[in-house]
Amino acid sequence: MKRGAGEAGRAKMILSLLDRRYPQARCSLAFSSPLELLVATILSAQCTDERVNMVTPALFAACPDASASARATPADLETHIRSLGLFRSKARNIVSAMRRIEAEHGGRVPTTRPALEALPGVGRKTAGVVLVHLGAAHAFPVDTHVGRLARRLGFSAEERPDRVEQELMRLFPERDWGEAHQLLVWHGRRVCRARAPDCPACPVRDLCPTGRTGAAGPS
């Protein structure tokens, strides 16, 4: 979809208002290294960041680097992440990813999209989150919050995350992609929730086609 100057201007105003509301917006996952960020992001699929942060301290203590994780078995990791959804497949993917990182990247998390997406358990969204928060590349990861807000705000009518991402990247300047991603995530968690969005408290309601009509239902 081709975007005009007016739509780009509206998007810029929305971003500015969200930045004013959430000056502290940042990644909610707790991590202290690129490896911890990658593992935490894999674990966050279909799970809240708060829940992930509850299990990662013990996991990172047991597997502090790629070498330790590569020597582990999925069962070793399952002990620490059993309370998370899809914990068995996540454990398998993390062990496999760490073995590849150890063998092919000298134990260091790669910082290019193709190399990240080649790792087990790492799709486009996960790779984008890692790239954004490592400052390695501009990316616009689309999770459930970003996709929902993109549709409600009229930025995209697409359902597929990859198509939403393409429209958002055309709408926002590349330098703003990472910031816009994080602000949309924060707003989606705090105000523009999937169910019972708090439209009266929304700082961008006057610029939102669904908020103005009160039609913002689950999306």
Task: Walk me through what this model shows.
This protein has 219 residues and is an all-alpha fold. It folds into two domains: 5-25 and 140-213, Endonuclease Iii, domain 2 (Orthogonal Bundle), CATH 1.10.1670.10; 34-134, Orthogonal Bundle (Endonuclease III, domain 1), CATH 1.10.340. It contains twelve helices and no strands. The protein has helices at 5-21, 34-43, 49-62, 66-71, 74-81, 87-104, 113-117, 124-134, 144-152, 161-171, 177-190, 209-213. Helix 2 packs antiparallel against helix 8 (124-134) and helix 9 (144-152) crosses helix 11 (177-190). The radius of gyration is 18 Å and the shape is elongated. The mean pLDDT is 93.
